[in-house]
């Protein structure tokens, strides 16, 4: 059964500045504690990641995942192609400009292939949501400052 969550955060940056951090997937392990590594396997013609292999560690489990990224106007989404600990994963960032800030919405849906107690699943999702919103915000502001 899939577990879903969503969260919004305001980031003091433009959508372009935020997208630059999101699409720099190979740097994600430097600011996201769940990421052990990330490697772009294929890129689109504009250089943005298309297929990415990553090693994620959460709840004492390590999983090698391959995901496929797609892009729209001020949005980035990904779908799981391959993993050993998950049946499915769908993630999406939606960025809405608001003056000199951007409202960021993050949606995540995961379906675990391994049984875990509900409280562990909730803790894993909370960690993912914290990193994908507050952690991303901190990284964007750090990059923006130089």
TrEMBL record:
<dbReference type="InterPro" id="IPR023393">
    <property type="entry name" value="START-like_dom_sf"/>
</dbReference>
<dbReference type="Pfam" id="PF10604">
    <property type="entry name" value="Polyketide_cyc2"/>
</dbReference>
<dbReference type="InterPro" id="IPR019587">
    <property type="entry name" value="Polyketide_cyclase/dehydratase"/>
</dbReference>
<protein>
    <submittedName>
        <fullName>SRPBCC family protein</fullName>
    </submittedName>
</protein>
